[in-house]
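Dear colleagues,

As part of the handover before I leave the project, I'm documenting each prediction I ran so the next person doesn't have to rerun anything. This entry is a single chain, and its sequence is reproduced below.
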Amino acid sequence: MADEIISYEPATGAELWRGPVGDAELEVAAARAGWAGWAALPLAVRIETLRRFGNVVRQRHEAFADLLARETGKPVWEARTEVDTVIGKVDISVTAYAERTAQRRLESPMGSRMALRHKPHGVLAVLGPYNFPAHLPNGHIVPALLAGNAVVFKPSEKTPATGAFLVDCYRAAGVPDACIRVLIGGPAEGKALAEHPDIDGLLFTGSARTGLALNRAFANKPEKILALEMGGNNPIVVWDTPDLHSAAVLVIQSAFTTAGQRCTAARRLIVEDKLFEPLVDTIHTMVGRLIVGAPHDDPQPFMGPVIDNQVADMLTESFLALLMRGGRPVRHLERPRDDRPFLIPAIIDMTGATERPDIELFGPILQVQRAHDFDAAIAEANDTRYGLSAALVSQTPALYDRFWSGIRAGIVNWNRPTNGASSSAPFGGVGWSGNHRPSAYYAADYCAYPVVSNEADAARANIGIGLRDA
């Protein structure tokens, strides 16, 4: 077993960061020892501490964005927007906490009163992904800390530097070291953290495969909270629209932003038969103009590489597998450099395929398909075990009404991309996309549990029925 984790820049292959592998036992023990003191602080103190965290990130904005861009390979303009979301999460979480977990007084009979309050769970583990290594785990960590929990955060082994930088910002803001722990490591450390008996819950963002394994592992642990935010095999449907340019832009933004490494990325394009050829031709031409490059290239690239060579190899093999199942290549997946994971987006027509695998290809591969009528398009869009995001591009409001009613997804958009969800709204899906614990604005729901109290200032009670005379 390696005793160090080393992070390399996808765009250059240069070593970026290295650090010792951590010990889940020690990190959980530290968090267990420290969380009660944090939970006992007034909410106003925790809010002020997290607002200081936002200010620390704001002061370190450019250094954070540079590190994030180099470690993930995403363009620096996109890395800057991710740092912005880290800062914005604080105020959003404060508002969400007040709205969804506020202390309330409820009506109660006989002169008593009913109180609703919320308590933190205790020690929560957070497993973060590599595609948004700051924004997505931060979306769990901020509301968890705000509610009074301690957090043990394990960043992806592919982006440990970003995880360590994020935790350092929390500590610089005054979050006690015991209450924000970072566990550096690979799958073994993640498994040890998830299985640790002293965590009170696990907040996960990642693949469906790992999420399903966690769901099975927690099946006999009802006392622990489990929030799963998994992937998607997301459809975008284009129907009855004269503006093919705008439709093509929305498809490209949905499918290829962040090199297709978004859980909300469009994996499948379903098109009205009469629009198929002109729309696909427009997309093909536009993809040929996309700049794929390194984070700091000038002019700025639309997208960077995928996370590493292993992923690039897997995506290349997956594209070939689609061809073998009868897919017709519209645009082949190109790899300009064999030694680096840059990929030029691919488009493949799966209309006549013998099999359309229901998997999440986490990269810039778009499968396209014709549909002869709108009901068939909705049926095809729903032909997946996932249910995260879906979008309709159409000029007809009545079609959107039918689409919204018929589609099975947690995010349903109209004339907007499948991705780019707001942190001010709940985020999550159904099926293999999650376990009905939406994150973002609704993260407050799983970071604290409600406690209802029936209270009176004095004990006054009698039995009015069922007693014999004295």
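The two ends are 77 Å apart (CA to CA). The chain has a mean pLDDT of 96.

All the best with the project,
I.
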